[in-house]
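re: that chain from earlier
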Amino acid sequence: MVKKLMKSIREYRTPSIICPLLVVLEVALEVLIPFLMADLIDVGLENADLPYIYKMGFALIVAAMLSLLFGALAGKYAAIASAGFAKNLRGDMFHHIQDFSFANIDKFSTASLVTRLTTDVTNVQNAYQMIVRVLVRAPVMLVFALVMAMTVNFELSVIFLGAVPLLGIGLFLIIMKAHPYFEKVFREYDHLNGVVQENLRGVRVVKAYVREEQEDKKFFDISGRIYKLFCSAEKIVAFNGPLMQFSMYTCILLLSYFSAKLIVGGSMGTGELMTMIVYATQILMSLMMLSMVFVMVIISRASSERIVEVLEEKSTLHNPENPRFDIRDGAIDFENVSFIYSQEAESAALSGVNLHIASGETVGIIGGTGSAKSTLVQLIARLYDVTEGSIKVGGVDVREYDLETLRDNVAMVLQKNVLFSGSIKENMRWGNPDATDEEIMEACRLAQADSFIQTFPDGYDTHIEQGGTNVSGGQRQRLCIARALLKKPKILILDDSTSAVDTKTDALIRKAMREVIPGTTKLIIAQRISSIEEADHVIVMDNGRVNGWGTPAELLKTNDIYREVYESQMKGAEKHE
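^ sequence. v structure.
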């Protein structure tokens, strides 16, 4: 785990090395100061030697100033190293997530990935900053101060040796007991982020159904569970303080008791006693710092495991060793295709699908909710891989193509139309980064989007809010279709992506596609018969299987599902008239 995380340090390795070196110099001078002070008192003041007092006083000032300088520089480099490490770690995770298949994302959930990219990385960043500075400072201070204490008075320094194992055992027990609670806490954070994300995304529905009270309860229930888990963990970690205080005051009491006897006996000076007390404080403070680091490590260990879990996750989709970069045409073949979303699934989403779609054809797809219409088309662009059988595009199995090449030639407008924050032009260039303004306007005209864009004060420079919340559902769908058309794909998939536009606009979009991109294979998933009545063929899906295949006229005669949908919609239209 540590080795995996350390790969993200990279260019911040130098600050990570400089910081501990500066800390060692800072501590060395800090430990030297009490030793110089003892000489100043026992030699300079006792003998009233003014030149010696000036000499030692100057040495103390220089040591204090240098220690302060080294400490400030160490803090600076620690901040650079930890912030840079967090930046790289977050970037590495995000870059790795971009290669995830839908199956990988489903495994973690969006909310969990957000938590790992934010809260977990922050925890690791804080721990790393303490490791490169405090975790170096504490043991170095402990060793240096112990050596100096032994130099001043070996017998008294033995007192400190008794505190170290006591604290070590205590801290180890605290870590072992608290860690499981922190693991549970971060899992609950995933749930909390999921609730917040869902609530904010569906805030209009929440308000429309007056569900604020229920959403509040859902949030506070999870928040309460996090509170209880944190309390349980902190109750254990809280033993750290009393343990430290007990060790510290016991050492100081024993030191004072034995030192008093030595001073009365004349075998120890006042300066030495003061130095021993300072060293005692430094030794015990270093142990206190170690305990703080251990607490942070307890928290960050759970976060580190969650981060490494993402970094080590292998995408379920891979490029072949020698991928193909040329796609002949938009012909699509399903050969005995079956698909299961996960091994735990009770039944297959698709079973025994066999289809041949010629290049340039327009194919409609209908079926009830849950009939696997979207699943069928998502396999074409390898958003998922088939479980059994094969899908061919241009006569070649999709698994033999370079993944980027395949997806560049298969444009999809999904059910959930997503626009990103930025101008309309910037959103359009997701389809083609090199598209000219004229090409963008032409694609928008084909998608019947140009008319409403021209009504905006800023036209194509109009800013789209995150998720496209400042445009209507129908406008959002037309912009997404225009973006897909800019790719000039060999295959265009419209997954119920004209459901929010009126029938006239729907007809105009289909007419434009027939006339302008006749060579592109078009798959149209629709709920309206009117959207697919001019298709070359129609696929009827039912419970993950192909229930019917043929022209609209053929299916009207031979397929019960198609005929039922047709008649229900046509009768509805007649009644409306």
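The mean pLDDT is 85.
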